[in-house]
Write a structure and sequence with these properties.
This protein is mainly α and about 55 residues long. It contains four helices and no strands. It has one domain. Helix content is about 55%, strand content about 0%. It starts with 8 loop residues before the first helix and ends with a helix.
Length: about 55
Amino acid sequence: MAQAKSFDMAEEFAGLDFHFIRLENRFVTTMETLIQRPDKSIREAGEDREEASD
């Protein structure tokens, strides 16, 4: 079985610039969540509703 590649999302998206650090951090957190559960929707993958809708 092939080994899953490990990603450092903060490093992967270091050049991201939404002009709001909160949005950039939210994006990175969402990507970290989705990579752990790629078969789920954002809402299903999130730990709670706040994470999915923040």
